[in-house]
Amino acid sequence: MKRPTSFDIAALAGVSQATVSRALSNAYPVSEDVRRRVFEAAAKLNYTVDINARKLRSKKINTIAVLVSEDLDQPDNRINPFFLPLIGSILDYAGEKGVDVLVSLQKQSDNWGVDYGFSRRADGIIFLGYRDFETYRQKVEVLRQVGEPWVVFGPQMSEDPDLFVGSDNEGGAHAAVSHLIKLGRKRIVFLGEASERHSEFFERFKGYVRAHEEAGVKVDPALAIDCFISREEGAAAIQRLLDDGVDFDAVFAVTDLLAIGAIQTLQKRGLVVPRDVSVMGFDDLWVCTCINPELSTVRQDTTTAARVLVDTLIRLIDGQPAEMTRIPTQLVLRESC
Amino acid sequence: MKRPTSFDIAALAGVSQATVSRALSNAYPVSEDVRRRVFEAAAKLNYTVDINARKLRSKKINTIAVLVSEDLDQPDNRINPFFLPLIGSILDYAGEKGVDVLVSLQKQSDNWGVDYGFSRRADGIIFLGYRDFETYRQKVEVLRQVGEPWVVFGPQMSEDPDLFVGSDNEGGAHAAVSHLIKLGRKRIVFLGEASERHSEFFERFKGYVRAHEEAGVKVDPALAIDCFISREEGAAAIQRLLDDGVDFDAVFAVTDLLAIGAIQTLQKRGLVVPRDVSVMGFDDLWVCTCINPELSTVRQDTTTAARVLVDTLIRLIDGQPAEMTRIPTQLVLRESC
DNA sequence: CTGAAAGCGCTTACAG
DNA sequence: CTGAAAGCGCTTACAG
Question: What is the model's pLDDT at position A78?
Answer without folding.
Answer: 76
